[in-house]
Fold this protein.
Amino acid sequence: MPLQEVKVKYADTTDTVLLYPEESFTTLLPNEADESVLQKTYLLPESVAAPIEKGDVIGAVKLSLAGEELGTVALVSHTDIERSELLSKLHQRGYIGH
């Protein structure tokens, strides 16, 4: 299941990339706690430029409990996203913005 989504510039077929955890993260919580007590801080760019390859690290999520950092997990793309040469050339010539 994807955790986040980031805008993609100059892509041929999509406007966003779905981000998945690169690896699983396991921790022990106190008996009286559930997963909702975990704080998740997403470290993501506003957008990324195509091309993107499956497995490219796009961002990360930092996991904390009661203000104490437990760990950070990389967020990656699960698909390849091709670059649109037309959109890229239009951007280079100043016809479309950043």
